[in-house]
Amino acid sequence: MTSVENDSDGDYGAEPEPDNSLRNFGEMTKAFRKRAGLTQEQLAPRIRYSVQYVGSVEQGRRFPSDRYIERVEEALDAFGVIRLAARQATRQRGLASWFRKWALLEEDSVALNTYECRVIPGLLQTEAYARALIANVPPVKTHQQVEAKVRARLERQRLLVREPFTAFSFILDQPLIDRQTGSRDITLEQIDHLLMAAELPSVELQLIPTVQPDHAGTDGPIQLLETADHTWLAYSEGQRSGQLISDPKEISILHQRYAKLRSQALNPADSVSLLKRLRGTL
Predict the structure, then answer these.
(1) Which positions of the chain have pLDDT values less than 50?
(2) Angle CA(132)–CA(145)–CA(65) in degrees, nearest 5?
(3) Are 185 and 193 in contact (CB under 8 A)?
(4) Which CA distances in Å does 119 have to 124, 170, 182, 217, 244?
């Protein structure tokens, strides 16, 4: 297992808004690309990334994956300069430092399985729900901090609809709805958002009813991810800390638990029906 560095809260990040460190990295890679006499369209197939990905990195709007950094370094013969610039471009606004590595892995994932018993996952949150969560958890944030976190959570949701699709599985405990985080109106909007998400071709959404005597998730949330090269990784998050898990034995255990949770949860159709009933009773 390897720990991810600590900073400040949450798993709810996304492609960051441009900041100086990312902009500097983008300008650096652009300079080396031009030095090599290549356009973005020529570089992209050499490093096996899309032109859009290359452009987003060069504009400072996307934190590059480790694989991207290594491929660009090699393709542009950058003498280690690009690797050094990448190490300096570590700050992502609105995204906890311990979550950044996982967020980068999500960018290239082919499958992501999430079980949550604490809050609606960031990929499924409405803006109002996200704001309520941020306001609820001390310490008090500045306006700029709140805006960065909210923006990051909403921008990250592009992963649900981008093509080629990532296969998303979400298992949520019903008490996440019953709690009415923020207010009744926020909860109604959040339910509607979940119902829309459940219709997406990339999303499978299941609920575990409040009364469920057999429950395999009592040890806490689970996140499992399959990378583009079909390696499985896991992530565990607690109070102001996060851990990336690569040990095959530990991942196997989490797979077993997630499979059990899937069998204990309502099927997707019945989960949608439950959400509609909950909406009608609020």
Answers:
(1) 1-18, 91
(2) 105
(3) no
(4) 10, 12, 12, 14, 20
Residue 119: which region, alpha, beta or left (left: phi > 0; alpha: psi -120 to 50)? beta
The token pair that represents 233 in the structure block: 């990784």
Please tell me the predicted confidence (pLDDT) of residue 85: 81
Amino acid at 80: G
Separation of alpha carbons 1 and 250, rounded Å: 9
Q: Between β-strands 241-245 and 2-4, what pairing exists: parallel, antiparallel or unpaired?
A: antiparallel
Q: Of 109, 104, 126, which is closest to residue 181 (Cα–Cα)?
A: 126
In the chain, at which residue ranges do the beta strands (DSSP E only) sit? 2-4, 111-116, 167-173, 203-208, 222-226, 232-238, 241-245
For residues 205 and 197, the answer to whether their CB atoms sit within 8 Å is yes
pTM of the model: 0.70
Task: Tell me the sheet residues that pair with 241.
Answer: 238
Inter-CA distances, 206 with 173, 183, 190, 203, 237, Å:
9, 23, 15, 10, 21
